[in-house]
Amino acid sequence: MVEFITLDGVMQAPGGSKEDTAEGFKYGGWMGPHFDEVGGKEMEIQMKETSALLLGRKTYDIFAGYWPNHTEPWPQVNKITKYVVSKTLKNPTWENTVVIHDIKGLKELKNSNGPDLQVYGSSNLVQTLMENDLVDEFWLKIFPLTLGTGKRLFEKGTIPAAFELLKSKVTPSGILIAYYKRAGEVKTSDIV
Q: For 104-122, what is each residue's pLDDT tens digit?
């Protein structure tokens, strides 16, 4: 799961003011002033490692409206499989799109022998994945600001889970880039 979040966990509309204004959110585009060259290079590496995408409907629509006409710096994005979770999308026009309609389909996809999937954004889908224990890794970019309001990465329904830090770095503008891999369950005996 590739996510941009604030120190207080907000993931809503990092890229633009009109990206997601749900519930009157007025801080869209919050990552722009902090994104630097080091963060951009890390993002390019992550994008090149993407062999398939799993997206919620809103993020899919944003991506499908942009990437088919922009191949730099993500040339393979149009060729890889894009799985989109939607109950209403019938005939997607973005090439190599597969529609998944429900949690059963998500679980089947998780248990298949297909490529590793990356999830970008997709705040509603992320909650469903976490509630159903379908997340193996978090690739987080934690930005040095708080917003106090907005959709958060870890909302109610997040299950207890342990993660191991695989690697991390801090960019010149203070973005913490951290890669976490699932490392089992959280047991009440482990909590002091």
A: 999 999 999 988 899 999 9
Q: Tokens at residue 112, please? A: 């298949």
Nearest-angstrom CA–CA distance, 59 and 99: 14
- Show Cβ contacts of residue 55 under 8 Å, excluding neighbours closer than 6 positions: 63, 82, 83, 84, 85, 119, 120, 121, 122, 125
Report helix, strand or coil for 121: coil
Q: Which amino acid is at 98?
A: V
Give the CA distances from residue 181 to residues 43, 91, 139, in Å, rounded to whole numbers and listed in that order: 18, 35, 9
Contact between 112 and 152 (Cβ < 8 Å)? no
Backbone angles phi, psi at 106, to 5 degrees: -65, -45
- Ranges assigned E (strand) in 36-175: 52-56, 81-85, 97-100, 137-143, 163-170
71: amino acid identity, one letter:
T
pTM of the complete model: 0.90
Predicted confidence (pLDDT) per residue in 44-83, tens digit: 999 988 999 999 999 999 999 999 998 788 888 999 999 9
Q: Say which amino acid occupies 47.
A: M
Supply 82's token pair.
Answer: 């894009």
- Cα torsion at 115, 116, 117, 120 (round to 10°)? -140
Per-residue model confidence (pLDDT) at position 9: 96
